[in-house]
Specification:
Layout lengths: L18 E4 L2 E4 L9 H5 L3 H7 L5 E10 L3 H9 L6 E5 L2 E5 L5 E5 L5 E5 L2 E9 L5 E9 L8 H4 L5 H8 L2 H9 L2
């Protein structure tokens, strides 16, 4: 309610929902009653999330991309890009380690996807956007100032790699969504 005095909760059909913060993320329970326990929800993925130190990382950029593909397919496209990858199911969550061990992707069910590679981390939130579309918000994070040997990467346009990943299999994803 603080900072939102200009909104009328009743008129705009707003409902108070449980919110909690953990691991540098905000967890929201989309039900007016109930409790949310982020540590219990994370389960076996909790140690990974703690080690990522998301709350202490700097934001490098935010990119929003809309694509004509099903929400579930948008999420799965981040998980199924390496045929040699090792997939671990941790309750409702997944940890996918690339075949060369250079990257780790985590799906914290139902959202977000966390992509970790070369000391950088991207948080990807995929949302349904209409009957046959998805919107993905990609937040690129790092550990702070770039190292001297990493200065070139810091000049890369924000979200460059995230956009490439999203475009990776767009034609196939669109065909699957349309049932062709």
């Amino acid at each position: 309610e603080q900072g939102f005095g200009f909104l009328e909760a009743t008129r705009q059909a707003m409902t108070r929902v449980p919110v909690a913060a953990a691991f540098g993320l905000v967890f929201v329970l989309l039900a007016p009653r109930g409790a949310i326990d982020p540590v219990a929800h994370a389960g076996a993925l909790a140690a990974d999330l703690e080690a990522l130190a998301i709350g202490s990382r700097a934001v490098r950029g935010v990119t929003t991309i809309s694509r004509p593909l099903d929400f579930r397919l948008a999420v799965s496209s981040f998980l199924l890009t390496d045929e040699r990858a090792t997939v671990e199911r941790l309750g409702p969550h997944l940890r996918v380690t690339s075949g060369d061990g250079a990257s780790v992707t985590r799906l914290l069910f139902p959202n977000p996807v966390l992509l970790e590679r070369a000391g950088r981390l991207s948080l990807l939130h995929a949302f349904p956007a209409g009957p046959a579309g998805s919107k993905v918000v990609a937040i690129s994070l790092d550990g702070g100032e770039p190292a001297a040997d990493d200065a070139g990467a810091a000049r890369e346009p924000a979200g460059h790699n995230d956009a490439a990943v999203l475009a990776f299999d767009e034609a196939l994803a669109g065909a699957v969504t349309r049932g062709r």
